Amino acid sequence: CVVDATLGKGFDAQLMLAAVGSTGRLYGFDLDPRAIEHTRERLKDMPEAHVAKLYVMNHAEATTVIEGDIDAVVFNLGYLPAYSKTHITQSDTTLTAMSAFLSRLAIGGCLIAVVYPGHPEGTLESVALNQFVSELDQKQFHVFSIQYPNQINHPPYLIYIERRY
Q1: Contact 62, 2 (CB under 8 A)
Q2: Is-contact 131 94, C-beta < 8 A?
Q3: Measured between alpha carbons, how far is 58 from 159 in angstroms, rounded to an integer?
Q4: Which residue, of 46, 49, 77, 112, is most buried by count of CB atoms within 10 Å of its CB?
Q5: Which pTM was predicted?
Q6: What is residue 73's predicted lDDT score, i.e. its pLDDT?
């Protein structure tokens, strides 16, 4: 069971669906109906398309429709590329969603977040996420981050969380 918590244009969902195959499950969420349309279009010709469930829903509520343990979750934070920046991820709902997903993550499962600190809300979200992950129990989760500390344009960076037990 894999989750794309922020569908966007559907690229992550496409890779995840190919990875789980026709016996797995892919859940996808986005508040923007255009993201659902983009993703449906991207997945429609894949033989595994029937195992994809896509929802116009805030990722903070996503675990209410997912059955069983979750093996992997991807967050690609920010806004839908090439559209208005009015539909952006927010710190409070992102932290609520991550907390809920981590509580349902299978042992050995992972949560990956691509964080975009280059816009005002992205900066706030970045600070909140870094605080959140620094407080996770190191016995229960391995956490690492890949960043570009010498870049002045605040490029995206990655946070990876793996459930140990």
Answers
A1: no
A2: no
A3: 20
A4: 77
A5: 0.94
A6: 98
